[in-house]
Each structure stands twice: as C-alpha cells, then as structure tokens.
Specification:
It is built from five helices and nine strands. By secondary structure, the protein is α/β, with parallel strands linked by helices. It has one domain (2-188): 3-Layer(aba) Sandwich (Rossmann fold), CATH 3.40.50. Strand 6, helix 5 (129-140) and strand 7 form a beta-alpha-beta unit.
Length: 189
C-alpha cells in the first residue's frame, strides 16, 4: 500500500509522489513543508542536503525541485528507499544529484566526515534519535558554517548542551507548532 503527496513548489510543483505506508513513515504535512521552504527560500538553491529518517523522501524531493545541488537520503527500510528511488526516477531527477543510503541514521552519521549546508532531521517521535543525531552532528561538525538543521519533534526543542565542546554555537532560529508537530530551524553562524 502507498499514500500520496503533492510537491509544493519548484520545477516539480503540483506533481504527486507516492510513499510507502509503514508505521514509521509520517510525511511532513503540506502546511509545514510550505512554511519550511518559505523559510529556506534564500538558502536552498545550490545547497548540499542530507535527509535522515527519510520516510517519504518528500523533503529531499522538494529541495531538488527548488534547486538544491545534491541530496543524500538515509532510511533503514528497503521498501521506503525503493519508493523514493521510483519517485525520483519518475520525476527524471538528475541521478548525479541524489543518492539513497540504506542504513540506521545514527550508525551512518557516526562514520561521516562531510559537512552539509542543510540537514533535514525528522526521526520517529517516540525515540531519542533527535537528541542523538544533534549530538553527533555537533561533535563531528557535520553542519557547515551558516548551515541549517530543520527538525520535527513531538515537543518544543531546546539546544542546551548539544554543541558543547564545539567551536561553533548553534542558534534556534525559528520554531512553530502545527497540530502535534513541533518544527523549526537551527542555524550555525
């Protein structure tokens, strides 16, 4: 079974994509995505993006639709990644601009050295993955200077302790709530 979503903007605006229906897949609602990409409107073109816990992959697809340089999409489900690849191929996305990785996000982040312009972080709400990912990103400096982390969570986020020991200090730039979803942007000046 699959659900469908409409791409909000960019060159694939109004195109529909399908996503695998699994317990852990909770696509970002249209209203939240529209707000997110309005926030990122000046930052997305030419950005290198990482989407962890991809689920539908819609955040990466929206980023590519709006001119991101490249995206890496990480999820632990074969079914989820098959559907994302199908969507990107159907949209005729340039194969050199995207890569899907089957892995546990924590394990994958732990061995990375590349820094990103934008990181999309939407882990299962019932886990402590948001905290763990932020700690790894801060400790390994996986966010470029002037980089942005987008997050979704079940409760408001505070940043105390996430970048201790790092030469950079994150700032919670924006945070909103839509229904049961808290979402926002973290900047690294």
């Amino acid at each position: 079974m699959s659900g469908s979503l409409r791409i909000i903007g960019g060159r694939w605006r109004s195109r529909k994509i399908k996503f695998a229906i699994e317990d852990a897949v909770r696509p970002s609602p249209d209203r939240v995505r529209e707000t997110l990409f309005n926030w990122l409107s000046l930052d997305i073109a030419g950005a290198s993006c990482l989407e962890l816990f991809a689920g539908s992959g819609v955040l990466s697809i929206e980023a590519l639709s709006r001119g991101a340089r490249d995206v890496v999409i990480v999820d632990s489900s074969n079914q989820v990644l098959r559907q994302i690849k199908f969507n990107l191929n159907t949209l005729q996305a340039d194969a050199e601009k995207w890569r899907c990785v089957k892995s546990d996000a924590i394990d994958w982040l732990s061995v990375q050295t590349r820094a990103w312009d934008i990181i999309f972080l939407d882990p299962p709400f019932s886990s402590d993955y948001l905290t763990k990912c932020l700690q790894i990103i801060g400790a390994k400096q996986l966010l470029k200077p002037n980089g942005i982390i987008y997050f979704e969570s079940a409760s408001p986020l505070t940043l105390s302790g996430f970048d201790e020991g790092s030469e950079h200090h994150w700032q919670l730039h924006r945070q909103k709530k839509s229904g049961a979803v808290h979402y926002g942007l973290i900047y690294q000046p």
